[in-house]
Amino acid sequence: MSQTQTQTQPDISYHPDFQKYQLRSDKIKALNPSIEKLHGSFPSQMKGELVWEGKDYTDEKQWTLVLTEDHLAEIDDALKAFKDLSQTAVAGNIGAPAYSTDKQVFHTDAGDIVSLFSLNVTAKGGESKLASSWRVYNEVAKTRPDIIKTLSEDWVFDGYGNPEKPYTTKPLLYHTPAKVGSPERVITQYALRDFTGFLNIPRTPGISPITEAQAEALDALHFLAEKFSLTLDFQKGDVQYLNNLSIFHARDEFTDEPGKERHWLRLWLRDPELAWETPEQLKPRWDELYKDVTEEEQVFPLEPRIRRGAGKA
């Protein structure tokens, strides 16, 4: 009588373990000793200024713009277009590391541009880390092209208890070929907690677990991003803009003290005229952020709050 094996979730948590990653990687390579060619039309290497490493930046002036009085006046005028939300919300269960003091591992948000405004800094820790997703892509394509294939296949994203949509499926990696007026690009979009859960919200029982190959791919993205990363020392009043389609970001754990509580304002921005082409499978999420947004719906919350649906689908 034949027996059916039930697939179980690999031994992977929200905080990647390098030793487990090495053991998993060695096992997978032993089972598949031949290195595959790159999957489909994916390029062997991305080139240009979006490919960089932390060691390329040795002077803070390379990425910092000091605002002039004219800049500040322009910002003050722009803020008048936003609605002030000065009320706080009850946190409830925290299912996203962005709303905790815990370490936030490398990931991307939804949207084109992530803007972070430091209203107050913490007493200890909380350093911001950035890494070029194109540099990570180049390393994976060169050393483990089979992982490119894994990343470009459909993954099961947790719906966090949404009865109408308990899960969704889409790739983590996308390729947009060059066309008139638009260069070739690769886009990686992922957050580890969608596949491992976080704190009070574990991965939903009943949906398909990820595979060992997918667990290895997640580890590879994180540890390569860590290897090539740049650490930023945020100060009160600093504003960060990053291309969410070509940069992974992370944040160290931190400790608050009275008067030194970390408070950052995050905005997800998009310039319709300069925006990259959005992959078809990402458009539903992008539409939630940007489609038909009115001026009244654009908010600038001055008090900390957990956005609606955080930790859920």
Quickly describe the structure.
By secondary structure, the chain is an alpha+beta fold. Helix content is 23%, strand content 19%.
Description:
Keywords: Oxidoreductase. Residues 88-268 form the TauD/TfdA-like domain. This is TauD/TfdA-like domain-containing protein. Pfam families: TauD. With 313 residues, the protein is α+β, with helices and mostly antiparallel strands. It has helices spanning 18-31, 69-79, 133-143, 145-152, 193-196, 212-227, 283-290, and strands spanning 104-107, 113-120, 124-125, 128-132, 155-158, 167-170, 173-176, 185-188, 197-198, 201-202, 230-232, 239-243, 247-251, 254-255, 263-269. The strands form 6 sheets. The protein has a 4-stranded antiparallel beta sheet with strand order 1-13-4-11. Helix 3 (133-143) crosses helix 4 (145-152). The radius of gyration is 20 Å and the shape is globular. It starts with 17 loop residues before the first helix and ends in a 23-residue tail after the last helix. Residues 83-92 have low confidence and may be disordered.
